[in-house]
Amino acid sequence: MSRMSTSVVAEPVVTTWHPQHGMSRTTCRLRYEPSDPYAVTVGATRADGRLATWTFARSLLADGAAGHAGIGDVRIWRVTSDDSRVAMALCGPSGTAHLYAPLGEVVAFLSATNHAVTPGTEHLVHDVDAELEALLDDTDS
What we know:
alpha+beta; Transcriptional Co-activator pc4, Chain A; nine-stranded antiparallel beta sheet; 3 helices; about 25% helix
């Protein structure tokens, strides 16, 4: 397994749709931390200027970029009318947003995350026994 200790970040320009504000273009931030190997974070500036972020499974982004994935608060799919885009429908306490990101940039981001922590080896990033022992030691104090 190859690992990098640094974050993987991409900042594609995306088209966004907000229910009360319509369509706009903004820069979105995709972030992957090898220390949290199962998750990716997506951030985008809302129409009101506030930053909204969502954290979800890296595999969900990969599956969505390849076809369709997710139910509920996070849904991701390849746009069939424009095969060069990935759509992300993201819901949360701060509202709902639809992001349309360039497929090539999402795939490049995923490739970089796979280089940082190979899919299927995420469990090797942490020493679970040592972490459990540390937690148990803390409760004995």
